[in-house]
Protein 1
Amino acid sequence: MSANGKASVGLLQEVLPKAGLVYSEKGNLSDVLCKPKIMPIKSITLEKLEEMEAKAAAMQPRLNTAAVEK
């Protein structure tokens, strides 16, 4: 802060490290687009779950008839 209580504007001192790397990027940055990925409509897990439910539904009538016969 200066004597009148206001911060000095525009007086930033540049500090460069004595050791290590200094990176500088100059130029216009642009967007990089990647190739679109094809996603499955149904996941493998969902397909397995539906297959197990179908097998369970197919076995249900057989279990009911076996229980009635006993």
Protein 2
Amino acid sequence: LLCGVPFAVKDMEDAQGLSTSYGSTVFKDKNIAENDSPQVARLKRAGGILIGKTNTPIFGSTALCHNRAFGTTRNPWDLSRTPGGSSGGSAAAVAARLLPIATAADGGGSIRIPA
């Protein structure tokens, strides 16, 4: 279905061979995933090509997409702003047209806030 469409993964879920930092300096470059999360596995099976991870606040715990490990995610249309929510990195990547698809999760507004 996806036939080579690139996608990125929110840095709160595993993608085999990539670090899952949860936006934390403690896990940055250390927590290498041995397997894909179910969502990543499904996207790959559908023909998607994983190109990387997107930023998230530490442990997805705040409505501002900033952490000490990777810094602040900026809104690509207004760099004085940040996309809110823990899926802000995914929202910014898609808005900047870096790729057409990025994973996200919405436990407390993480997709709705950046939208």
Protein 3
Amino acid sequence: VSPLLSVFNVPHISYWASSTLFDDTRDYPFLFRTVPSDASQVDAIADLVEHFGWSLVSLVAAEDDEYSGRGFELMRAAVLARETFCLDVQQRFSTRDLNATRLLVRRIKSRGRARALILYAPVLAAQRFLEACALENLTDVILLGSHGSSWTN
């Protein structure tokens, strides 16, 4: 909607547009957000990991979702840039294959080294992943999710 409104110099205020794609003010000169960008969320999650002293975390994201993929890549880049914590398991998962998701959860559980798990997924994929966690009795990690997961629904 924003590109169309920009043609007529009409401001567009978004309460949901967090993607870093919207950071380019040349492409979106009249788009204003009420939420921070995904890059700010990545920094906040990384700050939490550092604050609690977790040296090893796992990172998972839905594989068939653009938002999740971008968050996954931004977080990987942040980990490399900060050098204060490492990623144990880092993998994208299919929302269509519960068995494959359960295998991923088993892998995270069997390694047992990561203290926290960062999840990038829309609500249905997050529910599917949490279902796999429950089925595999993954209870000893702290789950950090992005706002894109909309877990309030």
